[in-house]
Amino acid sequence: MAWVFTDNDLHVSCLVQDLSTIVPLVNFAGFSSPKNEIYMKLKLLCLLPFFCLADVSAAEIPPPPVDAPEGYKWVLNEAYSDEFEGAELDSEKWHDTYPGWKGRVPGLFVPSAISVADGKLQIQSTIMFPPKGDNGEWWINCGAIQTKSQEASYGYYETRVKASSLRTSTTFWLMNPADKAKEVGKRTELDIQECIGNAKRWPGFKHQFRNNTHVTYYDKLDEDGEKLNLKAGASTDIGSGVSDDYHRYGCWWVDATTMHFYLDGEHVQTIELPTEVDPAPMDQKMYVNLVCEIYDWEFLPEMDALKDDSLNTTYYDYVRSYQLVKE
Ligand SMILES: [Ca+2]
């Protein structure tokens, strides 16, 4: 049996085979301390190479928090999964920015905002100096990564993340490629979590698990003459701020109409898309995004917060994806 200890502050995870392995080590280090203190000491012990595994293999990654339907099993989908071990972003798996989208003024996506350390993807938003753009309109470093594979389909998707305390977003979402969208006449977007650590205009973004879906039809117009956009969302109160601690945000994208959402492993919401216009609205293959961006409807981040490394970084522990495969 594997016991997993995860530190939310120092970003140390370690796997040990048996609790009995820990006790002598703790005693050896001279600690007979309460639980929290033992955990603190374990952080140090985890630095010992013989004690801490360098990475998390697929065999150790737990299945989704939902049982596979009878006759099926969950299989990890590597192209859209990453434990963020090692010292840099896996360039075979990810773009270190958002191809085709620079960000929203004044937040420019820059690869330098992206790093991998201590088992986490870190996206750090800071003041850009000197500013960029013809009029110096870009002056905040923002960050995005996107899977190079673009064929994510029905399955379970989850990230574990601690949002920054900025007025920038922390997000986890899927979208179909632009060229394919033109070909089929619709753009599909599945937003599993969109939150803002220090939200001001809409405070719910600060403490909610916010799910959303958009299907935009290029050849269908709404009553205002705009491209028809089917949108359905849901939100669940987390009970604390999204920047206070790590949370698991998951979605079982069941089929073209049904999506179940899971907060810390518990089913909390289901979105059912209407089928009057399109019998299979969310049927497109997509890529996966982890993005920290500026929203044009939100107040800008505070300068002091952008300068404060204890506030300006979002930590993604992992992103995991699973497909149902017939047994
Ligand atoms: Ca990790």
Descriptive account of the structure:
The chain is globular, with a radius of gyration of 21 Å. It has 2 domains: 3-45, no CATH class; 65-326, Jelly Rolls (Sandwich), CATH 2.60.120.200. Mean pLDDT is 87; it is low at 1-36 and 38-54. The protein has helices at residues 19-28, 35-45, 178-184, 303-307; strands at 3-6, 13-16, 72-76, 94-95, 103-104, 107-109, 114-117, 120-124, 126-132, 138-147, 155-162, 169-175, 186-196, 208-221, 227-237, 247-253, 258-263, 266-272, 287-292, 313-326. The strands form 3 sheets. Strands 4, 5, 6, 9, 10, 12, 13, 14, 15 and 19 form a 10-stranded mixed beta sheet that branches. The longest helix is centred in the first third of the chain and has 11 residues, at 35-45. The two termini are 25 Å apart. The chain has 327 residues and is mainly beta. A hairpin with a 2-residue loop joins strand 5 (103-104) and strand 6. Helix content is 10%, strand content 42%. The structure holds calcium ion. Calcium ion is lined by residues 83-84, 119-120, 317-318.
